[in-house]
Automatic annotation (TrEMBL):
Natural source organism: Flavobacterium agrisoli
GO molecular function: hydrolase activity
The protein's name in its UniProt record: Alpha/beta hydrolase
Keywords: Hydrolase
Keyword Hydrolase among record annotations: yes
């Protein structure tokens, strides 16, 4: 593997980034970005975090919690997201979720080369879906030891009839016409509840994580639908998995304080129902009172509960 060169990341505060050069795809050149923050003390423990849809890695407080618990922290900005967007690419564009396996493989090999022997795969929302599928496809891998999913995107948050009829139909179209733009998406209320320019407490790049998501394409629907079908059939893992989610979903028709008390993006009943189908040697599914969609961006009491459960679970269930 070619020696990687790290430079200061946009987050500063001892965060560094390096570019992973990937194989060209149907749009041309492809890269991903690996961000890291080291612990002050030498450790063999590390975590690799994958963000969700309409997202990128910016959660410094989460990274610092891992560092405080003696983990080297790594995060991927996946191809066509955040730091990795190239000028010729459609943002978020993917035709099969397995495309992301290339950068996960590359990142895990870098992490292993940097003397980390106990690695946790962590993923939020679509990132949680991706790492679950990745772990199912990479059984017997020695590059990671366990999975932690934060509100994983295991199903579309749509009425049953749309999930049963409309999504499969659009997915079928997406196989032949992947660049066809599809209307829809989630409301901007979630973004308004997060960003400090509006009602939230967090600062991040609104070009990389806009309140109203960039357009999606039929190929993306096809990729997500295929992944969801795999989850619903019951994937099998050979590593422990912790799945956390809010204790409720909220769907206000206008912005309100209720946004701070539940998942405004996914239906938590879908998360739980599909998580129960996953086979693993150790699996825990835990709801967090007043957790938001990205649990680590919840209000302080809820996110402290997330970290308490997470690190206690790792201590009890994973050889670290």
């Amino acid at each position: 593997m070619k020696e990687l060169v790290y430079k200061e990341d946009v987050l500063k505060d001892n965060f560094e980034q390096t570019t992973l050069i990937l194989n060209d795809d149907y749009e041309g050149k492809v890269t991903a970005t690996l961000v890291r923050k080291k612990t002050e003390e030498r450790s063999s423990k590390a975590v690799l975090y994958l963000h969700g849809f309409n997202d990128y890695f910016f959660q410094k407080s989460m990274a610092n919690e891992f560092v405080k618990n003696e983990f080297y922290f790594y995060a991927l900005d996946l191809r066509k997201y955040g730091r990795s967007i190239l000028s010729h690419q459609k943002i978020n564009n993917v035709r099969d979720l397995e495309e992301y396996f290339e950068e996960i493989d590359a990142a895990l090999k870098v992490i292993q080369k940097e003397q980390n022997t106990h690695v946790i795969l962590a993923g939020h929302s679509t990132g949680g879906l991706i790492i679950t599928l990745y772990a199912a496809a990479r059984k017997k891998s020695n590059l990671f030891s366990a999975l932690y999913c934060n509100s994983p995107f295991y199903d579309m948050n749509l009425p049953h009839y749309l999930k049963k009829y409309a999504i499969p139909m659009v997915a079928k179209v997406g196989e032949k016409f992947p660049d066809l733009r599809i209307s829809g998406g989630f409301s901007e209320f979630y973004g308004l509840s997060l960003h400090q320019a509006h009602f939230g407490e967090w600062d991040y790049n609104l070009d990389w994580k806009p309140n109203k998501a960039n357009p999606i394409h039929a190929g993306w629907i096809a990729a997500i639908h295929k992944g969801h079908c795999q989850i619903k059939k019951g994937v099998e893992l050979d590593k422990p998995i912790l799945i956390m989610h809010s204790d409720k979903s909220v769907f206000p028709s206008e912005w309100s304080e209720e946004m701070f008390t539940g998942d405004a993006i996914l239906n938590i009943h879908d998360i739980v129902a599909n998580a129960q189908k996953i086979k693993a040697p150790q699996k825990n599914i835990i709801g967090i009172e007043n957790g938001m969609h990205d649990l680590v961006l919840s209000q302080q009491k809820a996110r402290e509960k997330v970290y308490s459960i997470l690190f206690d679970w790792l201590d009890k269930n994973v050889m670290l």
